[in-house]
Design brief:
The structure is a homodimer. Chain A is built from three helices and nine strands. By secondary structure, the first copy, chain A, is mainly β. Chain A has a seven-stranded antiparallel sheet. In chain A, strands 6-7 form a two-stranded antiparallel ribbon.
């Protein structure tokens, strides 16, 4: 099997956030997709090792913030390359509350979601979630995963489904 | 809820194909994502009304062909805007067999997959599938859904999760 094919799949770049006992926490994911429009439902994939995964399991809720080409790379650095286990990520990343969920301010919009089902794999959970509220907040070009790699030259955190170990 | 946020999610453009009692059939989807890398697993979303949905339910297998910016728009026209119920789509779309699955020739690579789990929504099924074989076949830029809308000015077939009715 030629794993390079997986680099040909297209994604956006998103912050997924939730509550950790009253403290906001979150991480960066690329695997978000709309499943149906009525009732609006999305699916996301998240690594079991992400602290955010545990918090979503506990709260049953999360928000997706759509990052843009203008989003400060420090947002991705803070949310994507540290763990919420030992870092208060949202001390460094500006956020606002939407439907009682923490949403990244430096984004072009958000969806707040309630988990309604899930499927397990060896490393990742696919959460199916109904969208409770959603809004566009800025007229900016959404960041694609390809843009992130080409322009920001970001590397995949090792918990991403698309992670390829460097030799 | 502002549905415009759903246009800010980023996707690729793919042909999903399978067997219909010995005849290849398929359709166009944008919702494909990698879930884990070991064993390689992906998820796709498909409308219940797609004839391909029924055929995947019956065969338990499908292939994903990654379409590119150079893919002939007629491939999308034939696979995306007709139904396999009454059209032999692959009479007009060149394909080859990979691991006994029909794959669109005018693509930059493919994955052949075996369904291992699924989740239902009111309109769409999320199929979780293990990748059995995958290869890159051309060094071409994968088509994004944004490119499809901006450059090819394609419209969403009405079974797509991202379909927005025109008034």
């Amino acid at each position: 099997m030629d794993n390079k094919i997986f680099t040909k799949l297209s994604y956006g770049v998103y912050a997924v956030s939730t509550w950790d006992n009253g403290r906001p926490t979150g991480c960066i994911v690329n695997s978000v997709m709309q499943i149906t429009s009525s009732p609006a439902t999305i699916a996301i994939s998240m690594n079991h090792n992400n602290y955010t995964h545990k918090c979503i399991e506990e709260s049953g809720k999360f928000a997706v913030s759509v990052l843009t080409e203008k989003t400060d790379p420090a947002v991705i650095g803070t949310l994507g390359f540290f763990s919420g286990r030992d870092t208060d990520k949202f001390e460094k990343v500006a956020y606002e509350l939407k439907s009682y969920m923490p949403v990244v301010s430096d984004s072009c919009g958000y969806l707040t979601c309630k988990v309604i089902n899930k499927m397990e794999t060896t490393t990742h959970t696919v959460f199916l979630a109904e969208v409770e509220e959603a809004a566009v907040s800025a007229d900016a070009e959404p960041m694609t995963y390809a843009y992130y790699h080409k322009v920001i030259k970001g590397k995949s955190p090792k918990n991403a489904p698309t992670y390829i170990a460097e030799n």
